[in-house]
Amino acid sequence: MTAIADKQTRTQPRRSSKRNVPAALIYEQWVGKPVYYKGYRDVLAGKKTIEEVMSCSDLQGVLVALLTGYLYGQIDRKQYLLATNEIGLHLALNDNLCNDVVIYEKAKMDKLRGKYFDIPPKIVIEVDIKADVSGFENGADGYVMQKARKLLDFGVERIFWIITSMQKVYVIDRNDPTWHIVDWSTSISVLDDCPLNIKQLLDEEEIEY
């Protein structure tokens, strides 16, 4: 198991030098500052369409679907609510994040209103990075650490961030000052009696990657 120090960094994404970027290319807002989709510069240059950069990869899409199906059958659905499909999370005014998979405790929720969630989920699971990270110190690592810190400060208890290119999982717990990186062949506990092994999940479906 690899451990990474929680540096408590508060650095915000730098403003893009690009002007007149279409609103559709904004992936998240961090205290009013836009975080764009990865590849948005290719759209501005006419090399890609907006739909191309907003779409996920084959492995990312398959993993999110497998995770959703697996967790749906594992969690106590009378106690927990599972949500997916780039869930919008409203932290504060002009401060909005996107998540791949979230798990809520039903007892802490109100009725659904057709808007972004504005209360913290118990669990967040992310698969890869869809944001342009060029404006973040330390690039992808900086983005992961800063977004995770925002989620923890909002009240999220545990975050699992799967990086398919490295076959690794960040395991981040609000009550553990050390954040860990494990191989995705490692069994991790999502909540209660719900273990998760990414490699096993893929292998059981006979998916090649």
TrEMBL record:
InterPro entries registered for this protein in UniProt: Nuclease_put_TT1808 (IPR012296)
One Gene Ontology term of the molecular function aspect: endonuclease activity
UniProt keyword list: Endonuclease, Hydrolase, Nuclease
Protein name: Uma2 family endonuclease
